[in-house]
Amino acid sequence: MTVELETGTRIRTRKAILDAAVRVLAQDPGASLGQIADAADVGRTTLHRYFPDRADLLAAVTQEAGRRLGDAAVRARLEEGPGLDALLRACQTCLTLGDLLTLLFTETISLEACGDEDGFSRALDDAIARGLADGTLDPRLSPAWLQGTLWSSLYLAWSELREGTSPQHDVVGQLLLTVRKALSA
């Protein structure tokens, strides 16, 4: 049995292709593999060596999204402190996901397909349950409504950032103010 070791070059090339795929698909979900290869600064043959077809590339992008969302949950420390504070940290951290948010919002990839059951989604659910229990979130709102409001606010903030219509610090401030006022008890 031969085991192919991942060399530094292979890892960097794969990452470059995935990063380019996220950027390009965020702009045009129907982009060709050639467009993605060009954006990654690799040839089509190289892209096909890593991802034989579009389905393989999308599966890898979806897996990468799950990994990045899991990392975001860790960075946001969603298991710490009052529930509302955890959700506010989640908002700030999510904005750093960049074009990955576009892929989620346009349903080019889905949270469910990311294999995120035990990652970001679960951590958000837990933070919401904690916030309802600790009194920082409005008990008149259902957990689904609380999470939907958070994602809707993130969508608006990310749209503003992508359009470049407002400075990042203004967008983040408005996002946090909106979420705090909408969700707090």
From TrEMBL:
GO MF annotation list: DNA-binding transcription factor activity; transcription cis-regulatory region binding
Signal peptide residue numbers: none
DNA-binding region: 32-51
The organism's place on the tree of life at top rank: Bacteria
Domain HTH tetR-type: from-to ranges: 11-69
Taxonomic placement: Bacteria, Bacillati, Actinomycetota, Actinomycetes, Micrococcales
Protein name (Swiss-Prot/TrEMBL): TetR/AcrR family transcriptional regulator
Sorted UniProt keywords: DNA-binding, Transcription, Transcription regulation
Gene3D superfamilies: Tetracycline Repressor, domain 2 (1.10.357.10)
UniProt xrefs under Pfam families: TetR_N (PF00440)
